[in-house]
Write a structure and sequence with these properties.
9 strands; about 300 residues; 11 helices; 7-stranded mixed sheet; alpha/beta; two-stranded antiparallel ribbon
C-alpha cells in the first residue's frame, strides 16, 4: 500500500510547480468552501487571538490561511521529486553562520521551530550548512508518529529527502545520547508550538492574548545535553518561496534560568505570527484545554 501511494505521489511530484499550484487552488476550494475543514476551530482561534481585528479582516486572514495550507500540501508532495538546486533557490537561510559557529565550538544545537510557512522544507538546511560543517555533525528533526502507518512512512521518507534523521519524540533523548557517545554533534529541530501532550511538563504563558501552555521538554532536554538554542524565524517571501532567519536564544541553555528559553521562544514566535498570521497552522486545537496563569 505504501509503495502504491508513493508511486502516485511521485507521479504528481513530477509536475512543475505551476501545475501543482493549480491543484492547490482546487484543494483550497474543497477544504474551505466544500468540506469546511476545521473552519470552526480556525474561526474561534483567530477571534480569540485577534479580538481587536474586525470580522472582515479575520475572514480575510482565514481565507489566506487556507490558501497557504493548500500550498503547503502540494509543496510537501513536491518533496518526492525536487532537485537540490531548485530547493536551494526556493528555501533560503539567513544567519546560518550562527549554527556553524556554535558547532565549531563543539556545541550541539536545539532548533526551536514552529508550524509556520512550509516547515517540511526546513530539513533542506543540510544543503546550506552541512557542506561547510563537514563530518561529525548530524542534522535531525523530532516528530510525533502519525496514526496511519502508510502516511507516517511516506512523511518520514519526505523529511529525510536531504539527509537528516527523523527522531520519534518518545526516544529523542536516547538517540541524542547515542550520537554524543559516538562522538557526533547534532543540530536538532523541535516543533515546540504544539499543545503539550497529557502529562508533559508545561509552562503557562500569555501568548496571542490567551493563557497558553508551552512545552518545556525541549528546554529541559537542551539543558541536560548542554546544547545551545536558536530560533528559526520563517518568512513566506512568495508563492513557493521561503526564508528562515536564524536567531540565537542561548549559547548554552544550561547557563539560563529555568523557563527563560521557553519564554524567549514564545515571545519571538508571537512576533512571527503577528507579522503574518496566515502562515501559522490555525487548524491545530492549541487551546483545547483551559490554562491558568500563576498569580
Amino acid at each position: 500500500m505504501t509503495r502504491l501511494v508513493l508511486i502516485l505521489l511521485k507521479c504528481v511530484a513530477w509536475l512543475p510547480m505551476k501545475a501543482l499550484y493549480v491543484i492547490s487552488d482546487l484543494i483550497y476550494v474543497l477544504i474551505y468552501y466544500v468540506a469546511g475543514y476545521r473552519r470552526k476551530v480556525v474561526e474561534d482561534n483567530m477571534a480569540r487571538c485577534f479580538p481587536d481585528r474586525s470580522a472582515e479582516e479575520r475572514r480575510r486572514l482565514e481565507k489566506d490561511f487556507y490558501r497557504n495550507f493548500a500550498d503547503y500540501i502540494m509543496e510537501t508532495v513536491k518533496l518526492f521529486h525536487i532537485s537540490d538546486s531548485e530547493m536551494e533557490r526556493r528555501m533560503k537561510f539567513r544567519n546560518i553562520e550562527i549554527i556553524d559557529s556554535l558547532v565549531r565550538q563543539g556545541r550541539s544545537v536545539a532548533v526551536y521551530f514552529s508550524h509556520c510557512g512550509n516547515w517540511e522544507w526546513a530539513p533542506s538546511v543540510t544543503l546550506h550548512a552541512a557542506r561547510r560543517l563537514g563530518d561529525g555533525v548530524e542534522y535531525c528533526q523530532v516528530y510525533r508518529p502519525l496514526s496511519s502507518r502508510v502516511f507516517d512512512a511516506l512523511m518520514l521518507r519526505a523529511r529525510s529527502r536531504f539527509g537528516s534523521l527523523s527522531l520519534p519524540k518518545a526516544t529523542v533523548l536516547r538517540e541524542l545520547i547515542r550520537l554524543r557517545r559516538d562522538g557526533m554533534l547534532n543540530v536538532t529541530g523541535f516543533m515546540s508550538d504544539q499543545k503539550p501532550s497529557h502529562g508533559d511538563p508545561a509552562l503557562p504563558l500569555m501568548f496571542l492574548n490567551r493563557p497558553t501552555a508551552f512545552i518545556t521538554g525541549t528546554e529541559e532536554l537542551a539543558r541536560r545535553m548542554g546544547m545551545a538554542a536558536v530560533y528559526w524565524d520563517m518568512y513566506k517571501t512568495g508563492r513557493g518561496y521561503y526564508e528562515i532567519d536564524c536567531r540565537l536564544l542561548a549559547e548554552n541553555v544550561a547557563d539560563t534560568g529555568r523557563g527563560d528559553v521557553t519564554r524567549a521562544y514564545a515571545s519571538v514566535l508571537e512576533e512571527t505570527i503577528e507579522r503574518n498570521p496566515s502562515i501559522w497552522l490555525w487548524t491545530h486545537k492549541r487551546w483545547k484545554h483551559p490554562v491558568e496563569l500563576p498569580r
